[in-house]
Amino acid sequence: MKPILKSAKLANVCYDIRGPVMQRARQLEEEGHRILKLNIGNLAPFGFEAPDEVRQDVIMNLGDASGYSDSKGLFAARKAIMHYTQQKKIKGVTLDDIIVGNGVSELIVMSMQGLLNNGDEVLVPAPDYPLWTAAVSISGGTPRHYLCDEQSDWYPDTKHLRSLINEKTKAMVIINPNNPTGALYPEEVLQELVQIAREHQLIIFADEIYDKMLYDGAEHTSIASLADDVLFITMNGLSKNYRACGYRAGWMVISGDKRHATDYIDGLGIMASMRLCANVPGQYAIQTSLGGYQSIDDLVGPGGRLTRQRDLAYDLMTAIPGVTCVKPKAALYLFPRLDPKIYPIKNDQRFVLELLEAEKVLVVQGTGFNWINPDHFRVVFLPNTDDLTDAVGRIARFLESYRKQHLG
Question: Which backbone phi and psi does 333 adopt, to 5 degrees?
Fold first, then answer.
């Protein structure tokens, strides 16, 4: 029998958040070990549930959820999203400019497949949420990674970004608030990115899934609110702000200068029709979520659970010798740096595997987010304070052993 091979399109596709280290963690669990999981922003296992009124709405509407909806989504859901864009000061959005998807993940892939021809290039941040890089690659495009600068609160290095632009560049991805760094971009940074897109006629894809997970009174600016002469595709959904990861309810909003993009927008409609529709029960959660009480504010406000856990994880992590970290202003993650002089790591995937084997703590290596050096890893601060303290204590113990082993 000839071997059956995966598509060559997957050659440059990886998603290490659920990669080989995660598979080893599963094996260890099957052997009876308890793994402290700091690897994935899945809120429900840590006691963060979707609001009761949202769950109730889904239950109440299940009787009407057996058939397909419009391929772009339920009217009520898209109407609520349209009102939300108005709150975010994004101008000129109509119901037809909104497509509901099975989470933002599906829409990221759809948006790239509908746009890219072989060899087209897309600017993607480094570090990034790796699905963006994977979606560009699987769609026949080439991801070009522009650096974000750790010394400047992880803001995009716009000089480096400009140096990557050529005649093949079609679009720029902005992840704000940022996963994995927790950075939140101020308006002046966003304005500069808009200006670059304007000069080079680039589409801006804005991933804003964490736009309500903000700490210390910070405010989020939707980049699409800053101009109407650039084409924006803004992604958002219920997974994070409303603790509804499993509902798979996300949306994309097309705004800005649509006049020269009618063919691409038509292509997005074709892509939406091909999968018939997004799951309908999840769509019934959107109107109540966006229009109801915003319980996320209690979690991220002063003394809120997410704020307490962020502060604890940050304090414990940065107390470890040779570990530094920019304190996140948003989202669910720390992206600490290991001083290469103290931790001479050559292969960071092997490093996090050794951590897993030794201490039963699961994190994701920085290169899994397309970071350029093996000197970072991402920590999710969702576990309760006792488990966080235990997990970071184990990381500290492992790093102490690593220092002794490699530095003598």
Answer: -135, 150
The per-residue pLDDT string of the chain (408 residues; one tens digit each, 9 = 90 and over) reads 899 888 887 777 766 555 678 888 999 989 999 999 999 889 999 999 999 999 999 999 999 999 999 999 999 999 999 999 999 999 999 999 999 999 999 999 999 999 999 999 999 999 999 999 999 999 999 999 999 999 999 999 999 999 999 999 999 999 999 999 999 999 999 999 999 999 999 999 999 999 999 999 999 999 999 999 999 999 999 999 999 999 999 999 999 999 999 999 999 999 999 999 999 999 999 999 999 899 999 999 999 999 999 999 999 999 999 999 999 999 999 999 999 999 999 999 999 999 999 999 999 999 999 999 999 999 999 999 999 999 999 999 999 999 888 776
Q: How far is CA 382 from CA 80, 104, 332, 391, in A?
A: 29, 21, 7, 11
Collect all residues with Cβ–Cβ distance below 8 Å to 121 and sequence separation of at least 6: 141, 142, 143, 144, 164, 166, 168, 169, 170
- Residue 302: left (phi > 0), alpha (psi -120 to 50), or beta? beta
Residues 6+ apart with CB under 8 A from 262: none
In 275-343, alpha helices (H) = 280-283, 286-291, 296-300, 305-318
Listing from the earlier edge strand, what are the strands of the sheet with 333-334?
A: 333-334, 377-380, 364-365
* Token representation of residue 222: 């939707």
Distance of alpha carbon 317 from alpha carbon 156, whole angstroms: 24
Q: Sort residue 217 into left (φ over 0), alpha (ψ -120 to 50) or beta.
A: left
C-beta neighbour count of 200 within 10 angstroms: 15
Rg (alpha carbons) of the chain, rounded to whole number: 21
Closest CA to 54 of 214, 283, 300, 240: 283
Q: Tell me if 379 sits within 8 A of 333, measured CB to CB.
A: yes
For 263, counting Cβ atoms within 10 Å of its Cβ (0-12 exposed, 13-18 middle, 19+ buried), the class is: exposed
Question: Strands 337-338 and 231-237: what pairing?
Answer: unpaired
The reported pTM is 0.94
Per the CB < 8 A criterion, the answer to whether 127 and 369 are in contact is: yes
129, two tokens: 């949420």
What DSSP line would sit under 14-64, residue for residue?
A: --GGGSHHHHHHHHHHHTTPPPEE-S----GGGT-PPPHHHHHHHHHTGGG
| Element housing 76 (H / E) | helix 75-87
